[in-house]
Every structure is written in C-alpha cells, then in structure tokens.
Amino acid sequence: MEIKNFFEEIRAHMIVAIVMGTIAFLFSLFFDILLNKFSISIFTLIATSITFFGLLIIAMQKNLPTAYRVAVIGFPRSGKTTLITALFGELFANRLGIKAIPRGLETTERINANLEKLEIGKSIGSTTDQDVFAYRIDVIRGKSIFERRYKVEIGDFPGEDSATFIEKFGNWFHQTPYFKWAMESDAFLFIVDLTPALVNTKEHGTPEEYVAKMTSAIRAAWQRLNEYHYEGNTELSQKPVILIFTKADLFGITSEKDDLDETTNAILKFGFNEIPKPTEIDSAKLEQGKEKILKQFSTLIQYLTNQSKNFQCVFVSCFSYEKEQRVGIKELLNKMLPK
Amino acid sequence: MSAESSPACPPRHKTHSTLAWMLVHVIFPLIPFVIEGLLRCLILGFRFDSFSSATLSASMALICFFIHQSLIAHCFPMPNDKEGEQNVSWVANLFSIFAILSIVLFGAVVLLAAIVEQYKVAQDALPTLWIGTLMFCFIPIPFAYQAQKSFKLHATL
C-alpha cells in the first residue's frame, strides 16, 4: 500500500461524502425541515462528516490490518520450518475455508520453494541466522461490515537461537530484537520433536531425559514470558499457547515394527534428513501414540494448563494423512489464527 | 558503559499495550481540553461553548505530532519487512498532515473568535467552526488506534 493509492481512496470517499452532504442540503431545503441557514449548514456538515468518517474507517480497516504475531519456538531440527511450510501449503490450497492472502513476494517465493522441496522428497534444511524470516499472510474474518483483516506474521527462527531462548536468560536478552519480537507475539507455538521422546538419541539421551529437558526448558520460557509481560499477565494468559508434537507419523512406525532396533533405526531415519512418503495413518495407532506422549509430558501439560487459559496440545504430521487431511494441521490453524 | 546496558540502570520497559500507548499519545494530550471544559462548566454551567475548540485543535495538533514521532521511531525487528517500513512512513506522513491541519484550524478558530469579539460580526460562524473542529478531531483518534494495532507501537509508561 502506497500513500498515493491511499490518498486516491480518500479522494473517492470525499467525493461520496460531498455528494451525500449535497443531498442532505437539498433535502433540508426542499422539505423545509430546518429553521434557519445555520441549522441547514450544521445538518449538511454533519451528514458530510458522518459519511466521510464511515468510509474512512472502512478504508482504514482495509489498509491498516491488525498485526497478529505467531512465535514458533523449538529446539534445532524439531521441524519448525517444515511445519510452517505445511501450514501455508494448506492455506494456499484453501481446503480449510479460511480466507487468507499471502502478503509479500518473499513469503510466496520462499513457501513455494520449500513446498517444491517437500513434494520431491527433499529436506528443507536447517534455518540459519541469515534465514531469520517472518512469513506473512492476511487473514480475513467475519463478513461485510463486520469483516476484520489481520496481518499475520509467523516468525521462523534458527533452532539454535530458539534453544538459547529457552535455556539461557541474561541481560543481553532484552537487546536481541528477534527475541523481543517473539516476546510480544500474540500466539506461542512450542514445538516438541517426537523422535527423542520415542527412542534414545545422541543429542538428547533417553526419552525420559528428553522429556525432563523439554519440560524444564518450556517452563523456563513461560516464566520468562511472564516476567516480560509484568504489566499484563492477564493478557498473556489469554493468548493461545500451543504445545505441538511434530512428526506424528512416527507413531505408525513404532506400532508396526516388532524388532526394537529396526524400529529405532526407522524412527531415527525420519528425523531431519529423510522425508517420509505421504501415507494414511492408522487412527488407532495415532490415538495410542498420543495417549503415550500425553502421559510422558503430563507434568508440562499440567503446568501450562494452570498457567494459560488458552492452552492446547496438538499432534501434527506434515506428511501423513488422517481422514484425507494432514494430521493436526487444520486443528492447529484454527487454534493459532485470530478468531 | 551506556546507561541502557548498565546493570544499575536497567533499560526502561517499553510496552506494546494498546491502552498504555493510547494513554500516553492520545489521552494525556487531551487532558488540558477536558480540564478547561470541566472548569468552565463548573463556573458557567453546561453550555455549548464551555469546551474550547481552540484548545481542542491545539491538543489534536500535539496528539498528531506525538503519534508521528512514535511512528518514525518505530523499528521493525524482522529483516524482511520492507512493506511495514513503507506503511509506517506513509501513516507518519498522514499524521504530520493532520498535525498541520490542526494547527491551521487552531489559528482559524482563534482569529475568528478575535474578529467576532472585536467587530461583532459573523457570530453564527463560531459554532459551525466548533462543530467542524469536533468532526475533524474524530478522524485521527480511530486512525491512531488502528495504527497502534497494526504496527504494535510502543510506549513507556
């Protein structure tokens, strides 16, 4: 939106307002409803102003949409960028009935490039410092005069930085603009990779160690957020906080395999470098897996439930389908986007 | 060591709360207008001209100037937000235009009031100008509210 276009719009509104004012003036003269010239001039002025003011508010809503930030926070290689790409892929496909328009050439180009990689089975790769990026999309809610336009920004940070966000707290933190951006977000997505919760990994150790580490890290991040929002904890507690368990397609592997080593290898293979083929996931296996993970993370879930009035858990898979829809993507979009 | 990084002098917390921003940039500059109007109402009784349109337009000029300053000082943490930067710049220009118009309106109201007082002419024009000022002042306030919501402008309270 450029100032020139905006003034052109204002000029059009002024013409409409002047026409309305003239009609009001002629109406008051013709029907002789007002007593004197002063009353007529006031009546005309008010009619013109109300029309102009109303049209201006509509133009303003359209050109200055309300900002809505979504912070995606998680450890490296937890699937943040892949998840964002899948979310945009669903929005682009317009299967969810959400009116959304991508904002800016950079977002469209990057999403399309990432979608292309996923479609041919290539990994998107890790986000580097140079890749810090806000994906932008306009979401329209409501209809006709009750229409509200939101400028949604989904911040994608390098996993290493997100890990620092969770683990370290120092004075330097206030000076880092990206973290400040995350702090002032309207929705928080904490990403938990399911791989280390199912099998031993070099990076995170046993599943028990991983669960303890994630619980402590996310709790600390929430405490940090509370500290930052000291002026309005009530507001923070009402913002959507979503604990997202990514790579839910791994549940299919665990239940199918009998041999423990083979299962472990299969799960580890689909960690970060290999993309699983899109398949329909068995609902029973998915439910079984969800139940197990919810038990494992019960301490963290209990903590966030007590802290936030708008906390939810979502299991997602960017590749597997359940009832012809990507696992958890629609649910996640409905929960994270402005209502 | 800069004052901002000194542990003895921690950085002031800037809030992006809409209420705080509206208080600092809109409500506070309107206080002289409200106080003047209320005091005149107390002494003279409630009348159409108890609230001064000159004070209102001067307050509006201040409001628009403060908002303009808040907009031009706003920084975007994300590197790929060229569109946001452009938008902030045109909204800031818009508020500077509002500020200039408010000052012109202030001058017109004061001049007309002086002419009416001295020469006893065009007495009907004063209330019309008052209503015009009031109508004009309704425009920047919702604009300011929407600008804060759109850019998440900060205020120190």
Characterise this structure.
- The complex is a heterodimer of chains A (about 350) and B (about 160).
- Chain A has helices at about 5-30, 35-65, 80-95, 105-120, 160-165, 175-185, 195-200, 205-230, 235-240, 250-255, 260-270, 285-295, 300-305, 330-335; strands spanning about 65-75, 100, 135-140, 150-155, 185-195, 240-245, 310-315, 320, 325.
- Chain A is elongated, with a radius of gyration of 26 Å.
- Helices cover about 55% and strands about 15% of the residues of chain A.
- Chain A has a seven-stranded mixed sheet, sandwiched between helices. A two-stranded antiparallel sheet of chain A has the order 8-9.
- The longest helix of chain A is centred in the first third of the chain and has 28 residues, at about 5-30.
- Chain A has 14 helices and nine strands.
- The model of chain A is unreliable at about 170-175 (pLDDT under 50).
- Chain B has helices spanning about 20-45, 55-70, 80-120, 125-140, 140-150.
- The longest helix of chain B is centred in the middle third of the chain and has 38 residues, at about 80-120.
- Chain B is elongated.
- Classes of the chains: A alpha/beta (about 350), B mainly alpha (about 160).
- At the A-B interface, helix 2, strand 1, strand 3, strand 4 and helix 6 of A face helix 3, helix 4 and helix 5 of B.
